[in-house]
Amino acid sequence: MSGSKTNIVLIGMPGCGKSTVGILLAKAAGLAFIDTDILIQTDTHHTLQQIIDQCGYQELRAVEERVILTIDVDHHVIATGGSAVYSAAAMNHLRQDGWIVLLDVGLDALVARVGDFSQRGIARQQGQSFQDLFAERRSLYRRYADLVIDCNSRSQEDAVRAILAGVGRGPE
Question: What is the pTM of this model?
């Protein structure tokens, strides 16, 4: 998959490991690291949950899209929020200079990792279960992914190696 793309963009459900794997990947590849959730919080001076509580989940998605569209970097690992895939504009922007990598984790593992998701800052409809959100987002993640990394039985370090191999930056 090597080419002119210099960024690696991580997508996936909350709890799949985007931030943690992203930092390890950036270190291993000699790249800088951006977490779009942190960019949103820095830009708005609010946590993701505060944005949802005060303005609703659709506002969080709108802010996320706006923030992602301002990203103009090379040689970065970018960990997106789980709802970035709702914006075709944001995903196409990230795809211009980056490989889109889905960190794929099964529902049971995600539920165990996330626990009580009601205060986690997850952009979802009122009353929408985590299971329904998983089902809704899974096809979107797969639509945009250039590379899918099964992280169900991989360590974080193994996931990093698989990503680097998948984007042509190292052996599997």
Answer: 0.92
